[in-house]
């Protein structure tokens, strides 16, 4: 996919496959045994944590420091460490309303593996 010139984030030239430009969200319909596509606002007052090993969903009312209707994304692929000199990986907060991956403040991407 080509870079969107109006996008707030640019695809890293050294490792374009480590760039998050969308997240598809599904829920499991146990009765019908199928996946159901969710809309942007369906998480409401919950936050997702998505990582290489595990994922979880937490209510933001119990954790006021979390942003509702967002996914905290870490360590997209362990293989990225071997693809570039600096281990390029997307780490940030995916906002399902704006469809933008926000940064984590002063945390550098290289430090994400030390968390």
UniProtKB/TrEMBL annotation:
Membrane-spanning ranges: none
Pfam families linked to this entry: Beta-prop_KIB1-4
Domain KIB1-4 beta-propeller as annotated: residue spans: 20-95
Identification of the protein by name: KIB1-4 beta-propeller domain-containing protein
